[in-house]
């Protein structure tokens, strides 16, 4: 349950990412190799950045530039739950499994 609580807390903060400034220390995240375990253990900033990236990636170029916080939060919850149950899968594969079109 600790992982679920951490993910839930991070999801609540994720929508604030669009309104906040970038973290003070620059970080390079290779999302193509990041595992669900690394995502969950990555800390709030990493979790928020990945969730916002994922939201934009799956909207694509043709969708409107709108963040529906209810949809965002629900998708983030689904993704976090999936990653919590599948720690060795890559986040790209997890996102495809959860949000793939």
From TrEMBL:
Signal peptide: 1-26
Highest taxon of source: Bacteria
Pfam families recorded: HdeA
Keyword Transmembrane helix: no
Keyword Chaperone: yes
Keywords: Chaperone, Periplasm, Signal
Protein name: Acid stress chaperone HdeB
Organism: Bradyrhizobium uaiense
Taxonomic lineage: Bacteria, Pseudomonadati, Pseudomonadota, Alphaproteobacteria, Hyphomicrobiales
């Amino acid at each position: 349950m600790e992982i679920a609580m951490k993910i839930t807390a991070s999801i609540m903060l994720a929508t604030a990412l669009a309104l906040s400034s970038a973290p003070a220390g620059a970080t390079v995240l290779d999302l193509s190799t990041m595992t669900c375990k690394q995502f969950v253990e990555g800390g709030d900033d990493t979790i928020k950045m990945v969730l916002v990236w994922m939201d934009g990636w799956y909207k694509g170029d043709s969708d409107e530039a709108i963040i529906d916080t209810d949809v965002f939060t629900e998708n983030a919850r689904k993704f976090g739950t999936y990653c919590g149950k599948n720690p060795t899968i890559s986040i790209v594969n997890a996102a495809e499994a959860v949000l793939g079109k």
